[in-house]
Design goal:
Jelly Rolls, about 0% helix, mainly beta
């Protein structure tokens, strides 16, 4: 299933305030990708009922580093803070990228960090009143997305097909027991690019499927992914080839065998992985 009704804030500046279109809805998630600054004392992510300075805050997510790393969670209502909930086993480390995911359920916010469940926070204010997200203090952000959860296997339509200059961006995390990570760029007649990373063999296979037949494989060693570590994949298309970048480093190139780029209109991703965000 593809992500629908996706809202994206790219490289937002801190302090950040953004409206959540349609307000919070059950079953949707907020995904925050960023990096904690090296000397950060704390930062926070708030889900608010409005953007004014005294707005009620349904969820205050506040990692602190002045002593033992602790995350403080709370609700601000009627101009006063409620009782805090604290958890000291924070996965959020200085000068490291992180993905914070907040899934809205009927009873709670289900909070995960870097693909691992962190805690549930029971609603103290109805989530239907929340329409704003704010982020402030010692953090820098790559993006904030408000979306339906991304499920694996993943398939999405590439509107208008591929063309030179088009990039596809994926954020995810291979499971500890992951055996492979696979993505395909498809057209109605076959697969223009099949890219398969096999962990046990430590090999990456690229190929094209056309007229019911696989072509000659291109193989190389050194899988560019690490188990249980966040990755960013960018698939860049130009006139001659696809270039695959992993975590900002060029991993592979693949010369076009199928050259009608505009006919490549489906992107697939599957394997033993968690996906957090895909931009096609």
């Amino acid at each position: 299933m593809a992500v629908s009704q996706q809202q994206l804030f790219c490289n937002p500046k801190i302090p950040f305030t953004g409206s959540l279109l349609g307000g919070l809805q059950e079953g949707k998630s907020i995904v925050v990708l960023g990096r904690i600054l090296p000397k950060a004392g704390r930062f926070h992510v708030n889900l608010q009922c409005g953007s004014h300075s005294n707005a009620d805050v349904a969820l205050h997510f506040n990692p602190r580093y002045d002593g033992v790393a602790t995350v403080v969670l709370n609700t601000f209502q009627n101009c006063s803070w409620n009782s805090e909930e604290r958890k000291s086993d924070s996965f959020l480390l200085h000068d490291q990228p992180f993905i914070l995911q907040i899934l809205v359920t009927k009873e709670t916010y289900k909070i995960s960090v870097n693909g691992k469940h962190f805690m549930d926070y029971i609603h103290r204010i109805p989530f239907t009143k929340v329409d704003t997200i704010t982020v402030d203090q010692m953090v820098e952000l790559d993006f904030i997305a408000y979306q339906n959860p991304v499920v694996v296997p993943y398939k999405a339509v590439i509107n208008g097909g591929l063309q030179p200059g088009k990039d596809i961006v994926i954020y995810g995390l291979p499971n500890l027991d992951s055996k492979m990570v696979v993505f395909n760029l498809r057209h109605r007649y076959g697969i223009a690019l099949h890219h398969k990373s096999l962990f046990e063999e430590n090999v990456v296979v690229r190929n094209t499927f056309e007229n019911g037949t696989w072509g000659a494989e291109e193989k190389c060693g050194a899988v560019p992914f690490k188990k249980d570590q966040l990755f960013q994949v960018t698939i860049s298309c130009n006139k001659e080839q696809f270039t695959v970048f992993v975590n900002g480093q060029q991993a592979h190139t693949y010369k076009h065998r199928f050259t009608k780029l505009e006919d490549i209109d489906v992107f697939e991703f599957y394997g033993d992985i968690q996906l957090f965000f895909v931009k096609t």
